[in-house]
Every structure is written in C-alpha cells, then in structure tokens.
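Hey, I'm writing a tutorial for new members on how sequence and structure tokens pair up, and I'd like a real worked example in the thread rather than a made-up one. If someone can provide the structure for the chain below, I'll link this post from the tutorial.
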Amino acid sequence: MKNLPNRITLSRILLIFVFVALANIRSDSVGFFIPTVSPESAQVCHIIAYIVAILAAFTDMLDGYLARRFHLESDFGRLVDPLADKIFVVGTFVMMAEYKLMPGWIIIVVLTREFMVTGLRMLATHKGVVISADKWGKLKTILQMISLLIGGAAWVQMFDSEYEAFKTYCELYPTNATLLVDTYNTLKSGVPNAIRVFKEVLWPKGIKKCAIRLDSGDIAYLSKKARKMLDDAGLTECKIVASNSLDEDIILALIRQGAAVDAFGVGERMITAKSAPVFGGVYKLCAREAPDGTIIPKIKISENAAKITNPHYKKVYRLYDKENGKAIADYIAVHDEVVDGSAPIELFDPDYTWKRKTVTDYTVRELQVPIFLGGKCVYKSPSTTEIRDYCAKEVETLWDEVKRFENPHNYYVDLSQRLWDIKHELLKQGNK
C-alpha cells in the first residue's frame, strides 16, 4: 500500500505508450515502423486505444486520491505525477496531429505552455523546492484530458468543411471508403467533394475501389445525376449505395425508375420485419411413441382452421421439374412413405381437394437432415457464406410467377393422400 500511488502513476506512463502504439496502427501504409492491418482491425485497435486513454486519465485521479486519503504523499510522486500528465497530453496531441483532428497552432500553444510549466518545476527542484500540483492544476489537467477524449470521440465535428472530413476519412480508411454525400447538398457539395477526394487521396495510391452513399432525398433522381457526374470525372468504378428505410417495395420502385444504384442498404425494415413483425408459429405435439414402438399420431383441433395442425411423424420432400429444375411443390408425407421419383405422384390442394395434378417427369429431394442421432450431434453447421449461397440457390428454383411482388402465385405445400386421410380421421374423432 505504501508505494501504490506511485505505482499507479508509473502505470499511467505505460498506458500512454500502449495508447500511442494502438492509435498508430493504420489500414494504409504510411511509412516505416507503422503497422498496417485491415480497415476493420484498425478500427478495433483505435477503439481499444480510446479505452486505454480513458483508463490512463482515470489513474490521474486515482493516484492523487489515494496519496491524500492515506497520507502517502512523496517527493517521487510530486515529481513523476505531473510528468506523467505531460506525457499523456503530449502523446494525445501527437496522435491528434497525426490524424489531423486538431489545428497545429492549438497543439503548439498548449504544448509550449506544458513545457514551460515543466521547466519551472525542474528549476525549482534544482534549488531544492518541490512544487506540488494544487487542486486547480489537477482540475485543469482532468478537464484537459476529458476534452481530448471527447474530441477524439466526436472527430467529425472538428472539421470546418465536408471536404476536410471526406479527405481525412479516406486517408484513414483508403481501402474501405464510402462517403455519405447528402449531409449538405448532394449534387452541389457532396458528390463534387467526394470526386475531388477520391482523385487526390485514393488515385495516387492506385485505389479505384470507392463508393458514395445516398440516404435522403429523391434517390432515383439523385443517383442518376450522381452517376453521370462520377462517370464524367472518370470514376466509372465508384459504386453508389442507397439507404434510408428501404424495403422490397421501395427498392422495386427505384429499379423500375432506372435508379443508378449498385447496392441497397436495408436495415430497420429487415430487422423489424415491418410487413410481418410477428411469426405466428408454435410447437405442438404431433405424435407419440407407444412402448411397442408404434407411432400414435396426435392433432391440435381449433375453431380457427389455420391453427389445426398436421398430425404424425412426417417427412418433407421437394419436387423439381426435370426439364428446367424449377420447384414444383413441397410434399409432406408420413415418415415411412417413400418418394423417390420412380413413379408418378398425385398432388392436390389440402384445402381444395378437387384441385389435383399428376406429376411424372420430376426429381425429388428429402429436405430434412438429422441433427442428433442417439443423443450425439451428427450435423456440421454451415458457415454464413454457405447458408447465404444455399438460400440464393433455392430461391433461384422458384418460378418468377411465385417471386413477383404483385399477385404472386402460391407455392404449394401438399399433403400425401395417406397423411390427409389420417388428419381427417382424427378430426372426425375429435368432433364426436
């Protein structure tokens, strides 16, 4: 406990060097001894650096409090504590200058003041006088640290113009630059500034991959005008991204209007599923196994026809047209029924049973796969990319008439005749 405040002070100096090291990691090569990583990794390192800076600022309050609270003041602490503060301020200002987050003249004025104070302290120490930091000096240091940290968090507001903000962002993240161009005026300010920055910052590095984003206004009109401006400036590879509460209907309307949009950023209306925010699905018992191994089907009966369940232990098959590979229907059968495509199969609408169709030229795939067998997991979870590719492949097998937004055809999920008979027998028993 005796040397704890001094140890905390020394740890602050160490944290400052850790902060500078992490903040100095870049996503673009800027010189020797500067680590270069991916833009995503650089962002993580900068967040960690910010947290480390906060911890360093916290230790400045902690060491002084402990020293005063437990009467542990020492000449070493009086000398090293303000020195650690100066190192913190210098390190932070240097990184702000590196990332062009503060005008140089402000940094020079503040650092000149800090060095003058440090020089006076050293002179006083040489004459045998140790000057302790008073409460006003500590308050100044704490406020200075807080202002530096807030300034780092709200760095965009440090810029005097949209051009400076764009330029700094592209310098920090040249390989992942997407600029929001509608903050002020899309066509008179945003797009021209983006073009200027792309040419000044990215082109000299040999980088042509870039994008602008539209998040407001008439996106169809603005995207076409922006596309022409980009192409006329030679930025034919620059992409245009659209956002702003998009859903499938708005996207379809934009496409029909000929919007020059390369990618759509869909957020809230995908996450909250605005058109159907609640999935009305529940688990219900559909069968039980008797002691002799016999499967006994069970059914849930309701006055609401949509809530009546399909009984029994089942298998699900998907039938495809042999000629074009398009999905014909899904076919739910009892677990011991086999559908292998070798024989014609009759499909009928479970609700309108007179609608029947015999399918002959088809292939079939069983959709269910085992996850657990004998209490052991036998399934390997696919990667996110594999899930996406599988979904895209299956959607491609749907007919265009099923996928259209206006008056789409129903994709049928039919029951086998045997399963339909079991279901209606149970319904009859339930009504007795």
